[in-house]
Amino acid sequence: MEVKDAIVKAKKNDQVAFNFLLDRFWNTVFGFQLKRTENENDAEDITIQTFSKAFDKIHTYNEDYEFKTWLVTISKNIHIDLVRKQKSTISSQSNTDKDNEYYCIIDKSPSPEDKLITEQNLAKLLRDIKKLKPHYQEVINLRYFQELSYKEISEQLDEPINNVKVKLLRAKKLLAAIIKKE
């Protein structure tokens, strides 16, 4: 299959075309992010987000440009957004009291109320996860609760790593749809 053919088919929601594009460009996007983040897990997560966003917005792709360039641009923007988000969460204020300089560091540890809300949210999330098909529940459990790498999940499920990535991508989309619906 040619890339242009795959893009046309992907615009018609052809899963084989999506898999082809994922296989074809995964290493390019992952390698790009690995150089930027210098962290394999972050690079994998950003790469998955890249393909998720690209596949959701495939109808907006302009064929005058290289598909690879479009993907890398999406990936770069996701990384920039994440870096901005991290910088904005680091908050400290500097105050001066006479000649002494000191810093007020905001206590970010959760209050008892925050812990209760988190527990309630987790319980709701677990109920929502149970609404997914068993193979999607399993891959979410392995990745986010047992914190296994894609390679470890691939070995445990005895499936190719790209199948694991696609399955996780679909599971996250289905879970997001369940959460939005409620």
How is this structure best described in words?
The chain has two domains: 3-89, RNA polymerase sigma factor, region 2, helix turn helix motif (Rna Polymerase Sigma Factor, Chain: A), CATH 1.10.1740; 109-181, Arc Repressor Mutant, subunit A, CATH 1.10.10. Mean pLDDT is 85; it is low at 91-97. The longest helix is centred in the first third of the chain and has 23 residues, at 15-37. Helix 2 crosses helix 4. The protein has eight helices and two strands; from the N terminus they run H-H-H-H-E-E-H-H-H-H. With 182 residues, it is mainly alpha-helical. Helices cover 71% and strands 7% of the residues. It has helices spanning 3-10, 15-37, 40-56, 67-89, 112-129, 134-145, 150-157, 161-181, and strands at 92-97, 100-105. The protein has a two-stranded antiparallel sheet with strand order 1-2. Strand 1 and strand 2 form a beta hairpin.
